[in-house]
Amino acid sequence: MLAILTTVGRSTFSVFDVFDLVDPTGKSSKQVKAFNMADGTKTQSDICKTVKIDPGNFSKSLNKWIQEGVMFRLGSGRDAKLLHVFPLPSKRPKDL
């Protein structure tokens, strides 16, 4: 299942498109780290605690990512796990 999602995600979104959603200013490595932690095994709370990111701000970002289709919520409530379409490199690659 994960392999299919990643394959479809990479054919739908370029790494640049996802970077533009996750870190539009190019100055927030915490946002990229938080996005990459959403591997389907962690909750929103787990990610906020690990990355030391404000839960309110992260919630807004998360809702945007879900709405744009680059993040999925698996399950519901506090136990819901987060899953990204594919992980991002730690730094934005040079535009081609």
CATH topology: Arc Repressor Mutant, subunit A
Approximate shape: globular
Count of individual beta strands? 3
Q: Which architecture does the CATH hierarchy give at level 2?
A: Orthogonal Bundle
Content of β-strand: 5-15%
Largest sheet: 3 strands, antiparallel
Number of structurally distinct domains: 1
- SSE series: HHHEHHEE
Overall mean confidence score, pLDDT: 86
Coarse structural class? alpha+beta
Strand order of the largest sheet: 1-3-2
CATH class, anyone?
Mainly Alpha
CATH H level, superfamily name: Winged helix-like DNA-binding domain superfamily/Winged helix DNA-binding domain
End-to-end CA span: 31 Å
Uncertain regions: pLDDT < 50 for 5+ in a row? Answer: none
Radius of gyration: 13 Å
| Number of continuous helical runs | 5
Which characteristics define this entry?
5 helices; 52% helix; Arc Repressor Mutant, subunit A; alpha+beta; 14% strand; three-stranded antiparallel β-sheet; 96 residues
Summed up, what is this model?
With 96 residues, this protein is an alpha+beta fold.
Q: How would you characterize the overall build of this protein?
A:
This protein is α+β, with helices and mostly antiparallel strands and 96 residues long. It has a single domain (2-84), classed as Winged helix-like DNA-binding domain superfamily/Winged helix DNA-binding domain (Arc Repressor Mutant, subunit A), CATH 1.10.10. The chain is 52% helix and 14% strand. The chain has a 3-stranded antiparallel β-sheet with strand order 1-3-2.
